[in-house]
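Pilot study result, target chain (195 residues):
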Amino acid sequence: MARTSRIERNTNETRIKLDLSLDGTGKADINSGVGFFDHMMHGFTRHGLFDMTLKVDGDLEVDCHHTIEDTGIVLGNAIREAVGDKKGIKRYGSCILPMDEALVLCAVDLSGRPYLVFDAEFTADRCGDMDTEMAREFFYAVSYAGAMNLHIKVLYGSNNHHIMEAMFKAFAKALDAATMYDERITDVLSTKGSL
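Predicted structure:
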């Protein structure tokens, strides 16, 4: 069964179309209008082996906030829809990902309970044309729209580009692990019987 989703969201601030396949090969066609954010999303799709088409038309004349935050909302919704009833999936995933001098930990629980822990600091206001403070806003939006526990912690690092990129790649690897099937799990992985 194909685990795909198509989400479209239109507001006065952004117009977003996103197609997602959890069982892809890492193909991406991404255009948010924010070059550095596009680079992060390409890394997410490639390293999570997801296929994604993303087109965002946002109010970049204001700043990048609405574009990135709203994309997080749409991606979270797309993940939740594509995962479906969660029967047979591992539910949990984690990754400790190195990128040069940076090391980032990410852990995901597709529990149905949204929560974000984001333990990171940046020493610059921007990476390219993306405000560094938008990393937290993006992952907050993904976690709440996707109804997942999401923990991201920078263990160490000094280059802001490397830190940010390691976050997106670690999230991709953790999410890929959480959405994998395990033949031993015949229902949902919960003592409650539902997620």
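One observation from the pilot: The helical segments are 35-48, 65-83, 134-145, 160-179. A full batch analysis is planned for the follow-on phase.
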